[in-house]
Amino acid sequence: MIRLLATMVAAFVAYLLLTAGSGDILLWSGPELVAGAIIAIIVGITSYRIFCRSENLRMANPLRILLLLVYAAIPLLIEMARANIDVAIRVITGRVHPGIIRVRTGMKTDLGLLLLANSITLTPGTLSVDVDEESRDLYVHLINVPEALRTEKSVDSRELFTFFNIPGWIRRIAE
Amino acid sequence: MITTAALICIVIGVIFNALGAIGILRFPDVYTRLHAETKMTTFGTIFVSLGVILYAAGMLTGTGDAQYLTLGIHTAIAVIALAFTNATGSHAIARAAHRSGVKPDPAVVDRLSEVKRRD
């Protein structure tokens, strides 16, 4: 029941975002609000089993969503900018030492692993290729493997990033 | 003033997109090409969208017309969708390539093939 309600609220908020600025009741017009409510109910009934797969509603906490937005806007964007400039230089000079290394993540939940793998993939120069389901280790393709990491069996996920403790941020958001 | 800031953002984004396109031609194998083609173009597109959002915010405060609010919010949603689908998509391409037997060609180390060989 609570899963159904959470899905309906999420669908309604998404509809409100898409139609903001259509009228005078705050920002929306009356017909849009009614249509949004009806669509949210239909979407909620049909898709709550997929949207809230586990009974755990951790991510419905607004604080966690706010933290996720802050994480995407500051640490992730700065890491992306740093790595982009690095890869841009490599495009021009053509100096690459690619390789696939094994990365320990230490994540306890699937959502945390998903967020970390997506963060690694979004940062240029690192690309998650495969995942070990049991130990939750990632196989990451690096465009330039530093000398120090070439002989190590597996690498801690913090060493892929320069300025911020990205795995720590994700653990705070998703676990 | 804010139009100039938007223009600077768009120029930065276009430069990164162009470098990403050059990277596809210069890099040696499928994985390194994925780095250039998916990540750099995402970053460039984020900057282009940031320029659009800045422009929309400037026009909104200037004229108060609701269509600029819609423009800004829709662009922000497009950026979020792009970031998620791009990360998942490039991961899927890389995984499919490795499973179908395309090994990273100049590679200093390949832990994944070592594991696969043991299985």
TrEMBL record, chain A:
GO terms for molecular function: monoatomic cation transmembrane transporter activity. Keywords: Cell membrane, Membrane, Transmembrane, Transmembrane helix. GO terms for cellular component: plasma membrane. It is a multi-pass membrane protein. The chain crosses the membrane at residues 33-51, 63-81. InterPro entries: Cation_antiport_E. Its main location: membrane. It is found in: Cell membrane. It comes from the Archaea. This is Monovalent cation/H+ antiporter subunit E. It comes from Methanocalculus chunghsingensis.
